[in-house]
Amino acid sequence: MDRAQKEKVVDELGQIFESSGVVVVAHYAGLTVAEMQDLRAKAREADAAVRVAKNRLAKIALDGKPCESIADYLTGMTVLTFSEDPVAAAKVAEDFAKGNDKFVILGGAMGENALDRAGVTAVSKMPSREELISTIAGMLGAPASNIAGAIGAPASNIASILSTIEEKAA
Prior knowledge:
By secondary structure, the chain is an alpha+beta fold. The chain has six helices and five strands. α1 crosses α3 (55-62) and α4 packs across α5 (117-124). The termini are far apart.
């Protein structure tokens, strides 16, 4: 890799560290190509991404970024899982780690907050952005449907009383 390529990688990593809601660092020694492709596919489904980079270049890219605290985790064969959603990458990494002993989560960062192994687990258990939005939308819609039901109930009661009277008269 020549100097221009290294500078390009550092720039790309810098953008990742700047824009990501969460970055998870893990060791991946011993993973097969198929297992790594499986991890990448699961990340893509969750709107997250996986990146393997040289630790030295990643440390250069981390300089001055909000998640600079993860530099200590960048030793050995590391892989970065990241997403704009503050929960997606942590969920993908946790789910993959449960089924694969060779994938060992070291920690990560959520904005300026450093996460240890337990912190990544806690973040992965939080509801995602989409789940929160759907919950809020459901809560906002519930009062309106209750009001509509209450308004419509007297009319249906009157209709059932009229049909009962009509049946008795016939």
